[in-house]
Every structure is written in structure tokens, then in C-alpha cells.
């Protein structure tokens, strides 16, 4: 499965992180590329009907929202997770991008 970034801003966010975190993100993206829809916990979790989050654990907790569109995984939005629950504000940002994919 092919992986695409919706905006360059997400690529910039990833490259701004610590090297171990970037390595974990790249490994998790490889898993997404291989397993696609079949990727599950602890690497991926369904948020809503067509919104998923990649879960990168470590000293920095990172979440990257993505969706599937035309046989591709589209990476929408990423952030550093600082609270126990995923902030609704971050989910809203990712959901706001979804209509632009159709």
C-alpha cells in the first residue's frame, strides 16, 4: 500500500522530532505500508468511521492521524501526545481535512 502525506507540514513535524522517535515513526509507516487495513493495536487504532491513528510510543508519545483513500494511506495530521486521552482538538483537525480527499 502506498503512503502519502496530505501536507508537507506533517513531514516537517516528523523531521523536527528526536532521532529515535523518527526511526520509530519510519518503522511504523513501514508496517502500515505492509499491512494496510490489517494493521491494529498496538500500532494503529480506529478513531472514527474512516479516521485512524498511528501510535508511536517512547519518550515522546506521537500520534499521526491517517485515512485510506483510493488504495492509499493518506497521513493527515500529527502531534505530540501529552495527555492520557487523545485531545478532541487534534481529532477535529484531522476530521476537517477528510472532506478535501473526495
UniProtKB/TrEMBL annotation:
Pfam families to which the protein is assigned, alphabetical: Gp49
Designated name of the protein: Addiction module toxin RelE
UniProt lineage: Bacteria, Candidatus Giovannoniibacteriota
